[in-house]
Amino acid sequence: MGRLSSKNRSIPHPLLRFAPESLGLTEFPRSFFHQDTAYIARRLLGAWLARRFKGQWYGGRIVETEAYLGSGDAAAHSRGGRRTPRIEPMYMDGGHLYVFLVYGMHHCTNVVTRPAGIAEAVLLRAAEGPQGIPIKLLSGPAKLSSGLGITVAASGTDLLSAGNLRLFHNGNRCSSIGTTRRIGVDYAAEAAEWPLRFFDRRSAAVSGPAGLK
DNA sequence: CACATGATCGCCT
DNA sequence: GGCGATCATGTGG
Q1: pLDDT over threshold 70, residue A209
Q2: What is the mean pLDDT of residues A134-141?
Q3: Percent of chain A scored above 70 by pLDDT?
Q4: Which end of chain A has a smaller Cβ tally under 10 Å, C or N?
Q5: Residue A97 Cα distances to A8, A14, A38, A155, angstroms
């Protein structure tokens, strides 16, 4: 049957349409993505992940992120220096995308950090759509990905190549940031407790049960 | 609200 | 062959 599972859907949700130019948003320079990964994870709060589809822009304001720190991080796909075709984009220059499939049906979108050769990344866990859009639409890494129609097909693309996937910001930094351990990585033992999850305290779109905020 | 479970398959060992 | 960087739905208190 022509089953249409989430992993095949690359169409952005129509409610997420917005006009980047009207908000005066600019883009981060390459050097921004070469900095400390946890620092970047915090700085990305408030930035807009945007996708151009058939001439229109769709996007959301990022409100929750997690940092994954590479070879020494037991929770990262690049733990122990692993290097396979799937995770190759993690080794690319900062500013690229790393997208993977989890549980056979959901996608997770990451922004690669650090210079090429260092496999670190920031998982985008939740975002707010444009004004008036249901708060749950992008609240969770898989929902954020599916809301914008981002699939593994986008893994390895460069956010700074003036393409259809971009990261915009308006110069304002998130001023109220919460920090907790990362979600869903209990298998990583001690690394699971590292305080590498960040979220905008003032946002109602942050994912997970109330206890995790 | 707090769990518990099933769905579903690519990736890695 | 085992297991996820998840989510929706169901149960029970």
Answers
A1: no
A2: 93
A3: 93
A4: N
A5: 18, 23, 17, 5
Reported in sequence order, the residue ranges of A25-154 that DSSP labels E, i.e. its strands, are 26-27, 48-53, 56-68, 97-102, 106-113, 120-128
The pTM of the full predicted model, rounded to 2 decimals, is 0.93
**Which nucleotide lies at the shortest CA–C1' distance from A187?**
C4
Smallest CA–C1' distance to C8, residue: A143
**CB proximity list for A123: less than 8 A, separation 6 or greater:** A65, A66, A67, A68, A108, A109, A110, A141
Which residues pair with residue A198 across a beta bridge?
A65, A179
| Nearest nucleotide (C1') to alpha carbon of A101 | B10
pLDDT tens per residue across span A93-118: 999 999 999 998 999 999 999 999 99
List the A209 CA – B2 C1' distance (angstroms).
10
Question: Residue range A41-69: average pLDDT?
Answer: 96
H/E element, A82: none
> A68 by DSSP, 3-state: which?
strand
* Å separating the CA of residue A141 from the C1' of nucleotide B3: 22
Distance A23 CA to B9 C1' (A): 40
Which residue has its C-alpha nearest to nucleotide B2's C1'?
A209
Report pLDDT for A28. Answer: 97
